[in-house]
Amino acid sequence: MPTATTPVASRKVPRPRADALRNRERIVAAAREMLVEDGPHVSLDEIARRAGVGNATVYRNFPDREALVREVVCSVMDRTAEAAEVALAETGDAFAALERFVHASADERISALCPMIASTFDRHHPDLEASRERLERLVEEVMGRAKAAGQLRPDVGVGDVMIAVAQLSRPPAGTDCLRSDRFVHRHLQLFLDGLRAPARSALPGTAVTIEELRQA
Fold first, then answer.
1. What backbone torsions phi and psi does residue 192 show, to the nearest 5 degrees?
2. Is the peptide bond before 2 cis (omega within 30 degrees of 0)?
3. In this structure, are residues 40 and 98 in contact, taking their beta carbons and an 8 Å threshold?
4. How many angstroms separate the Cα of 74 from the Cα of each of 7, 20, 184?
5. How far, in Å, CA of 136 to CA of 157, rounded?
6. Distance between CA atoms of 42 and 83, rounded to whole angstroms?
7. Is the pLDDT of residue 173 over 50?
């Protein structure tokens, strides 16, 4: 009688199909574009049409609007964090790396999505917290390196930079969101020049911290 036992095949967790992953990415990209262009009230049906998928595909990936908007906001923060990682990987001028990060952040249009974090769903959802904490940590590192090089004025905080990016990349009331894009990087550069050390003036108040930004 044989004593050897036949090994039991290990169970494998099935991976999503490549086409399913592509559909999900197309849905998130379409939702990001339409939320920026049309605001938080765009319908899931319109997003499905923009993405080139059926309504059932949208609901299969995202059971409700809250889940989809949360995924869009997380993806934008993750892409912004990746821009910060690129800045940290650069070995040249620390302030130039900060400049490139700020301009890349504006291109992600965080400002258009900020109101949705406050009004559309739970801002303390674990996915949001994880993406936000990663982004904040990386921005602190980018700014810290520029300060250590003596290039960034010491009286500014992460909150100052993130508020400025959000405000300067938000179109003025009554103007077309996309047409105002051509002014964003010009005004961001004016702001960045004001961050350079040595400072030419004293700032009122104190550096804005992330905690203050969250409570605002």
1. -60, -40
2. no
3. no
4. 42, 19, 23
5. 11
6. 28
7. no
pLDDT digit string (tens) for 99-125? Answer: 999 999 888 876 666 655 555 567 778
CA distances from 147 to 77, 140, 153, 156, 166 (A): 23, 10, 7, 10, 22
Contact 112, 36 (CB under 8 A): yes
Domain 66-215 sits in CATH at: 1.10.357.10
For 199, the token pair is 């400072």
Domain ranges of the chain: 17-63, 66-215
19 CB contacts (<8 Å, ≥6 apart)?
none
Cα distances (angstroms) measured from residue 16 to each of 19, 46, 68, 196:
8, 25, 18, 47
Mean pLDDT score across all residues of the chain: 82
Of 199, 193, 198, 146, nearest in space to 168 by CA: 193
Percent above pLDDT 90 for the chain: 42
Pair of tokens at residue 11? 């169970």
pLDDT for 50 beyond 50: yes
Residues 105, 111, 112, 118, CA torsion sign: positive
As beta bridge partners, residue 152 has: 196
Can you give the pLDDT at residue 175? 46
Instruction: Identify the H or E element spanning 188.
Output: helix 181-195
Q: Which residue has the tokens 């952040």?
A: 105
CATH, range 17-63? 1.10.10.60
**Is 84's pLDDT higher than 50?**
yes
